[in-house]
Amino acid sequence: MSQRIFYNILQIILAAALLVDFGFAQKSAKTLSADGYYKRGLAKIKSAESAATVRLAEKIYQAAAEGFSRAIELEPENPDFYFYRGKCFYKTSEIENAVRDYNSVIKLKPDSAEAYIERGKIFADLQLTDEDRQVTLKRADDDFETALGINPENPDLFYQRGLLLFSEFTQDDSDVENNRQALTDLNRAIKLNPNLAEAFAFRAEIVFFYKKYEQSIADSTKSISLKPRNAEAFKIRGRAYSALEKYELAVADFTTALKFEPKNPDLYFHRASAYEKLGKKLEAKADKLQEEKLSRINKVALPEFRKQLFEGLSKSFIDETSLIDDENSN
Prior knowledge:
Layout: H1 3-27, H2 34-49, H3 54-74, H4 79-91, H5 95-108, H6 113-125, H7 130-150, H8 155-165, H9 173-192, H10 197-209, H11 213-226, H12 231-243, H13 247-260, H14 265-277, H15 281-297, H16 315-329
Helix pairs in contact: 1-3, 2-3, 2-4, 3-4, 4-5, 5-6, 5-16, 6-7, 6-8, 7-8, 8-9, 9-10, 10-11, 10-12, 11-12, 12-13, 13-14, 14-15
């Protein structure tokens, strides 16, 4: 049985189990408590994180959000319900709903550093016009600074702020300084949480930018050891191997990454380059064709590490969020 067929069968089985589980929840709506819906939602989130495909994960997150909504109906003053529903909305690209849920958390629990971090993460990921992009970056920075004032020992805060600061294209001295600060933030995040796989992967990307390829390989390898299904870490390590002219190792890493993100055109592009260096022209040509095809049809990036692409969030909605913050400060 091929791996693709196995994953398809697994997806059908999990989807069926999800529907049965949701049907049971519907029937037991009168007896299940708010805490019961909350715990079921947390279990679904954990299941979504290990789902075989992105599409299946999105379906499970949607089901989890519905469970948290039921919990909120029964207990509307519990900030945890809004917090985790916001996480589900974020994963399914329901961005305005996610922001509204984090706003609700902040209203109910003003000292929630985690809510400011999650909301800041959304603003940092938004891809809008250049003018609105500056607004959202400022909003993200404000949220991270607020979270820092509440809890200066949160590793996710330093990881997210590092993402916000890093620029792959240095244009002036401020970019260089931001990159240095991003690296400092990543080092801080790893010190606070040595098991944060995403932080090692991102630090690998930063040091790769500075041509420290051996260190990039070491950080990528550490990230993979912490999170084996880590396409981004395999891609970064593959690029570092290519830079060191270890093209066979690079091809192996890009191939592994493609098992987790088979519709990512960047991976085909990088593997094609490695194949060319190895003199494998037919393989390189096939990958180039696949990269061109996916670039045309894959308009929205997969919701994986650093690939969120959200469009259409209005400037008025950003202003609305600012007004909510002003109300909280009064």
